[in-house]
Specification:
Oligomer: single chain
Bound molecules: pyridoxal-5'-phosphate
Radius of gyration: 20 Å
CATH topology of the largest domain: Aspartate Aminotransferase, domain 2
Strand order of the largest sheet: 1-9-8-5-4-2-3
Mean pLDDT: 98
Largest sheet: 7 strands, mixed
Number of helices: 11
Low-confidence stretches: none
Shape: globular
Length: 363
């Protein structure tokens, strides 16, 4: 039985005719840039995220960059983020001209450690960027309390968290603004690159609409040097189709996560907190023998993976951020193992994967 880590094809086949129609509509009306599908999707996604506004942009990385630009966070300013994340969290900060400041994650849930945030605050700190890694919300009560105490902005990196909840509120509504990615493998993925920003701040949303469109509201009237970073109309049309299924797809992922949890107790999964509802973008377990287990699973036709093999401070691009040890981030990077996770998995497949992993781990 061959089981991939993610299976984009089976999801596509389930919505093929709706996607074809949505693309055909765009081709027929010809409004390829900021066409009506973009604002229609933005409204639907804002409401999905319990947020007032959504601004579609070209990628999740640009979303981070643009939020910081719109908040006037740039050269000389520091932004606190976890050392254990995908590199793009730091790249967005760098692109805005600000300085990423890394802090460690917690051993139990792989999420940014609020105590470490507090210890990293300096007079130059302007924002905290919690990453809802694997589709699991950070401790937003603790992070909001710190942000309030120190007058800092909260910019959520929600690139992996479309629909994840904290105390019944969704990622995208838990800070001043949030960055989403629609990279194809995400829980809500486009058929190309795409991203979005959610915020309930009217002025910020207006500024972001300007910044993503060469700094212009009216054609040839450029108010500031912005970017060309718009969500593509065809991608917006596809995303609007997929958004209708997202709650259902996330619920299926939760079912498979619950079954994995039942079959693989004590396999080092990050803890699921009672006050949060994860969406399992990644299903992670942990092992001291991670590399051998990964190889054995792959040899058995099971597409396991690693998210991520290097924390940010171990990357050549960010060596200079290794100013102190981040032992928990190093440990997650050394031991994390991702198992296949997508809505279209079957119970038989999940049972097969769990049985193989148990057989491998118990030798
Ligand atoms: C945590 C995190 N942040 C940011 C990004 C960047 O998103 P994009 O690939 O759309 O630029 C991604 C995904 O790639 C991500 O997983």
């Amino acid at each position: 039985m061959n089981i991939p880590l993610v299976d984009l094809q089976s999801q596509y086949l389930s919505i093929k005719s709706e996607v074809a129609l949505a693309i055909q509509n765009v081709l027929d009306h010809g409004m390829y840039i900021l066409g009506p599908e973009v604002s229609a999707f933005e409204s639907a996604f804002a409401s999905f995220c319990h947020s007032k506004h959504c601004v579609g942009v070209a990628s999740g990385t640009d979303a981070i960059h643009l939020i910081l630009r719109a908040l006037e966070i740039g050269p000389g300013d520091e932004v606190i983020l976890p050392a254990f994340t995908f590199v793009a969290t730091a790249l967005g900060v760098t692109q805005a001209g600000a300085t990423p400041v890394l802090v460690d994650v917690r051993r139990d849930d792989a999420l940014i450690d609020p105590e470490a945030i507090e210890a990293a605050i300096t007079p130059r700190t302007r924002a905290i960027m919690p990453v809802h890694l694997y589709g699991r919300c950070c401790d937003m009560d603790a992070i909001s309390a710190i942000a309030n105490r120190h007058g800092l902005k909260i910019v959520e990196d929600a690139a992996q968290a479309h629909g994840a909840e904290f105390h019944g509120k969704r990622a995208g509504s838990l800070g001043n603004a949030a960055a989403f990615s629609f990279y194809p493998g995400k829980n809500l993925g486009a058929y190309g690159d795409g991203g979005a920003i959610t915020t309930s701040d009217d002025a910020l949303a207006e500024r972001l609409k300007l910044l993503r469109n060469w700094g212009s509201r009216i054609k040839y009237h450029h108010e500031e040097p912005g970017l060309n970073s718009r969500l593509d109309t065809i991608q917006a049309a596809i995303l609007a189709v997929k958004l209708q299924y997202l709650d259902q797809w996330n619920a299926a992922r939760r079912r498979w996560a619950a079954l994995y949890g039942e079959l693989l107790p004590g396999f080092g999964q990050p803890v699921d907190h009672a006050d949060r509802e994860p969406i399992y973008h990644i299903y992670a377990v942990r092992s001291k023998a991670r590399d051998a287990e990964l190889k054995a699973l792959q040899a058995a036709g099971i597409g396991a993976g690693i998210h991520y093999p290097f924390p940010v401070h171990r990357l050549k691009a960010y060596n200079e951020l290794a100013v102190k040890p981040f032992p928990e981030s190093d440990a997650w990077a050394a031991e994390e193992l991702s198992l296949p996770m997508y809505a279209e998995l079957t119970e038989e497949q999940v049972r097969h994967i769990a049985a193989r992993l148990i057989a491998i781990r118990t030798g």
